[in-house]
Amino acid sequence: MSGDALVSVDHLVKYFPVQSGSLIRRGREYVHAVDDVSFEVRQGETLGLVGETGCGKSTLARCIARLFDITSGKVIFEGRDISRLSQRRLRPIRRDVQMIFQDPYGSLNPRRRVGSIIGDPYSIHGGIDGKERKRRVQEVMELVGLNPEHYNRFPADFSGGQRQRIGVARALALRPKLIICDEPVSALDVSIQAQIINLLADLQEQLKLTYIFIAHDLSVVRHVSDRVGVMYLGKIVELAPVEDLYVKARHPYATALLSAVPIPDPEVAERRERIVLVGDVPSPIHVPSGCPFHPRCPKAEQVCVDEIPALIPRLGDGPDHVVACHRPMEVGEDLTASHPHISADERIVEPDVVGRPLTAQPEDERSR
Amino acid sequence: MMIEPAEMEPGVAVRSVDGVVVPSPVAVVGRSPWRLAFERLRRDRAAMIALGVIIFIVLVAIFAPLVATMTGHGVNQQFRDVPAGLTPDGLPVGPSHTFLLGTDSQGRDLLVRVAYGARISLLVGIVATILTVTVGAVLGLAAGFFGGVVDSIIARIVDVVLSIPYLLFAIALVSISHPSLTIVIIVIAMFGWAAVARVVRGQVLSIREKEYIEASRSLGASSWRIMFIDILPNVAAQIIVYATLLIPVSIVTEAALSFLGVGVPPPTADWGQMIAQSQQFYQQAWWYFVFPSLALLITTVAFNIFGDGVRDCLDSRVDRL
How far apart are CA A232 and CA A57, in angstroms? Predict the structure, then answer.
């Protein structure tokens, strides 16, 4: 499955300026949406990206698609740095990089017919119009399982799943190399989710596509991905082949996140301990020093406050399994048994987080 | 195998399966949001009656010369002797067989003049509205879409325009040039576009954050393409509603300017002007005051009711579903 890198992201940073203070004493602060992220996506693979709402995964996707300007760092697509290209010079690259959006209602213009929505890429890029355009649109509609006769209909005439197929068709129209799926199924019913995921899988095989697949549903990501990156506060904290991650997650955050995946077998589910993290995600404006997870980490030590951990293989893992943690988890280690080696007020955090109990607890103990 | 939709009966999709032609249960052509809105409008009785009245007024305006021919009275023809358009005291004569709506202070046939007055009202109402809406929509679209400096500049101009009293401005403008129809239209458009621009800007601000705009961007669509193909159709409903409600406002404004003597100059027949002149005679000649006022009232009410109907049928809440 592994091959050459199609896209590599190199120390990518995206800050959004926010206004703060009164009208007169206006300070400029920044939301650290994506903070020094590096990884690569290999030809033909599916790279999953997971994380809580607001962790920067959608921003990261939009930076790679160059819908946003990048604060610093590089995005290299097929060996070419596209991070500083103007919109005009980006156009040829847009043929190769497409996006599928989360909301099948918001992502289709309600005033335009399906045929012209899917046909847009052809008129923008190929200058293909009229009969030829219609033929191609109907071809791609057939490919994604839509009835080509519905060419003249409006998005309002379709169900959520069908609308998402329209979105897929639009993304496929120019036969791109990379498709960035930004939570493509999270707005759909579970039964429809499976259809769309299977469609994406079939298309990947047929058209040799590479996916970046963003989701917060961990079971979906496990199903579709070859490798998975876990994001927290704008950083990738762990990146590993999918089975490695689900079997031996090294980062305490990844461990806690994965412990929240529902298990269909009630007996297994009973034996498993769910880790409940205490405290809220810190504000992305005032990011904690060192490891961004240290204020909530049950294993935090002084080094976690002082030093940003590098994203490297640890505890003898292969080069594909990298984690940004000073105190990675051993296989079988119980996170709920850990206690931080530093006290709460030593952690450099916002005032409202300091002072609360910061140990992770098993769920049953907590509910008592 | 698929049959070209062009060969099919409208509304009935036909698929050929293994050589057997079977009608598919689905219609091929989706009904556009515009079509649906139009069908809703057709069911609105008040709006349809108002539309009938509007069509009648338009016909009167178009065929005003025919009214003149039928009565045999020219629009500016003054009847001093036979048939007598003025009483021996020099006052207007009341409605009669000769002058169905009576005459004015110059002994001219009021019916013919009211008919000709419709031309000016409709002309100003429609031309001024088109101008107002075009300027307002383009600037509002630009302000909302580009934001930043463009938005700030346009917003400041809007603020300035909305704070100038248009009547005083019109009177001042006429005093340095001559009153004319063109000036009336320019004054109306100059002070009307700002409100349209504000409405459109607000709409564009919300639409440009939609995912389908992002989708167009990711396809590499140019700003122009996004503005006119993706955004404009989505604000068009609001623009149309605003335009239909702006027509009666423009008509009334024109009448007001003419009433004040800064509008359409005499001897052109104009409702506002007629109402102004009739004031001196309201005790002796009620018809002189009543008929032009009634014409103005009926026209504006008809346009307003129709505009309300259009607004209801284009309500964006309905076509989201």
Answer: 9
